[in-house]
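Weekly structure sync, notes
Attendees: PL (lead), two postdocs, one rotation student
Agenda item 3: pending single-chain targets
PL asked that the sequence for the first pending target be pasted directly into the notes so everyone works from the same version. It is reproduced below exactly as submitted, 600 residues in total.
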Amino acid sequence: MSRSQAWTFRIFLLAIAIVGVLVTRHYGESWDELKFYKYADLSLGAYRTWLGSGQVPEFGNTYDNYGPAYVMLVTLAARGLQTLLPWSLSDLRHLLYFFTFLAGLWAFHALARRWLSRFAAFGATALFATQPLFWGHAFISPKDIPFLAFTLLALLTGLRAFEKLPRFSLDGLTPRSKRNLLVLSALWLFSILALYLGTGLIHGWIEGAVHAAAAGQTNLVSYLASDLQKVDPGVYVQRYFTLFLGARILYSLLFTAGMALAYRKLAPEALRATLALLVPALTLGFATSIRVLGPLAGLIVALYALRAHGRSVLPALGAYAALSLVVMYATWPYLWPDPPGRFVESLRVMSQYPWPGEVLFDGVQYASTNIPRTYLPVLLGVQLTEPVWPLFLAGLVLAVVAWVRKREHLELLALAVLWFALPLAAFILTRAPLYDNFRQVFFILPPVFLLAGVVFEMVKDTTWRIALIGLAVLPGLLADINLHPYEYIYYNRFIGGGSGAFRRFEMDYWGTSYREAADWLNGNAPAEANVWVEGPAHLLDMYLRADLKLYSTYEAERADHYDYVVATSRYDLDLRSYPGARIVHEIERGGAILTVIKQP
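Predicted structure, written out during the meeting:
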């Protein structure tokens, strides 16, 4: 039975993968994807310019405060994949998002297996995977689903590493060898921190020394730069700073290699323990370089390690944190000129994100910084499928009872508090800016589904288990089919489905239905027709026939007349744009209108 259950999950994952590949090209580009990939190209360019000029190109707005690790990786992977698969770059990126979602599902199932039987873990994973909200975002989101997936991967790899961590000890050394190794380690740590965290201070010192020498003061620069009076001091500032950057890299590599050799000779167990932390540190650092809340997974891992091993694990936790910081730093070029200052800036910006638009919630438009405290509770209640919260509450009660009676499920309950309840309370109480419903907080939801799995665990009869899991996933599966490819606009029956939520809550806020609008125009519009488009015109343009002429508020040029008008229902643009025009095509799902095409 155990072997067949293991294969059940593998077949399930394979089936999802096949379906995902077949439907990927049904999904349109999302509203801000283009900007993220411009930011990715800019960040990739920093690897060329940083050592050459000591400058990091900046996007010039809050995109810099997002870590670019994931979009850089997808940019490179999509370009490579295009040599094998003749799809557009947009579709290839969507395929990579989907495979990232699959990796997150695998990690979720592996985490569930730590506390649940195979059957229950499969049920929890199936419920998680079939949520229309997750499935729809899995193809169109370069931020939210990838961050969710890497949070799961960081937690899984971290827990596994500290569960089987080799003994991180120097007890077998002679007092002299131990002292020398500790001094060497302290010197390495202090120097690396000073050189990297003090980047901004070092640049300021170089700049001050150069300008002082240019003003006639005698210092080291005045001896090195003999023609300083003939050259702009900024040239020497850049020259010496880039020299420092190259020297810092060389120093870091040589000193780290020397440290590794010393530990390999004197304390091989400690070196093995450090190497065992490379993958967990990679996933944690990468998650942080997607969103600054990534360290939450590291905090949970650290608490687990301390509970399991006590204070003896502190050196390993220090190595884990240091390696994670290295990965974050290496994959986030915006931090390079001033790592601590710019990271703190990113924390501040992202905690009070200055999104300029308005949020539609229960029929009222709110500023994203002024949403009511009921915002998250209501949306969580109406955008997950109907069985989720009853199963969660039942699982929570069962887990508490099992803990009281048998001291079981303590870790699962602790996860629910640390990973879900406390962050949720913080978002609600601080009224943190949110928009586009609650996609930014997907990463706190896995414990909800893990506790739902406890219910499947408690049902002992196999037939009843299968029936319960089938009933739990059925609403999500039906919605996925009926809403495709706009699963992310899902609202459950508690609010009347899509028709009950229409014009009360956000629907196609990323404008992905413009791909279907372009397909209709490509098949119906006469040659060289003029098309007026409201909202994100670039989402229509990338799929439109070459002869069709596109006009929008983003363009200065205007036409004498328009053969067609394309308008999204977001912000009621479908009602406000050419209100008297005849609607010739309507894109709708579940009773909600997403986009209309009119003829004036």
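Discussion points:
- The chain has 25 helices and seven strands.
- The two ends are 64 Å apart (CA to CA).
Action: rotation student to compare against the earlier draft before next sync.
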